[in-house]
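Posting for a labmate who doesn't have an account.
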Amino acid sequence: MIRVVLPQHLRTLARVSGEVTLDITGPVTVDSVLDALEARHPMLRGTIRDHTTKQRRPFIRFFACDQDLSHEPTDTPLPTTVASGAEPLLIVGAMAGG
């Protein structure tokens, strides 16, 4: 089981509370997690990544094991602790402004 923590506005949209757990077959990557998340919660399609290009939306960040994975290739395997479910993948809405 993969654990995913969504920002509050996406939890509200997906009608979930707390962490989302997903079963992933094959390599555990940001792409495979997002594919499973969007399949389970279709209302999230296009909110985290673009429909067509599959690129991360601006102001969305990915974190795991205290590391910012936002600029890593999305087909890179996630850390073993995330793949095992010991640590969650955090999807965070970045803050901006002055």
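Reply:
Got it, the structure tokens are right above this. The first strand starts at residue 2 and ends at 5.
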